[in-house]
Amino acid sequence: MSTRWSLTIDCADPARLAEFWALALGYARKPPPKGFGNWEEWFAHYDVPEEEWDDGAYLTDPDGEGPALSFMKVPEPKAGKNRLHLDVQAGGGREVQWEVRWPRVREALGRLTDAGARVVHEYEAQGRPDHYMMADPEGNEFCLL
Hints:
Signal recognition particle alu RNA binding heterodimer, srp9/1, elongated, four-stranded mixed beta sheet, alpha/beta
C-alpha cells in the first residue's frame, strides 16, 4: 500500500506561484474543507491571525490522481539549484512520437513563458530538440518535455 503525499514549495508570493503552477499542470485551487464556505471562514475558525491568511496557497489535481501542492511564504529568497524538480510532460512523455510531442511542448512553452517562466537551457537528443530546463516566476527549476 502506498502512502498519500503532497509537495510543498517555499516561495515569496504563494498566490502568484500557485496561479502559475495551476496553469502549468491543469490544477485547480483547493476548495476549503467541508463545512466552510471559504478559506477565510476556516482560518477564522482555527484562530489563524489575519496577517497570515495570505501565507499559503493550495492546489489540487481536479482528476484526483496527482499529489496536492502547497505554496508557503518564507522570508528568504531561493538560493542555489533545486535538489528536486518537476518534469512537466506537456508533450505526453517520451513514449509519444517526437512529431506529435514536440509541437505540444512548444505550445506549452509559449503559455508558460507568457505566464512568467523562463528557459534556462534547451536540450537536444538525436540531433533535434528534446526538452527544456525552465524556471518558474520565482526561479524554481523544472523540465518541460
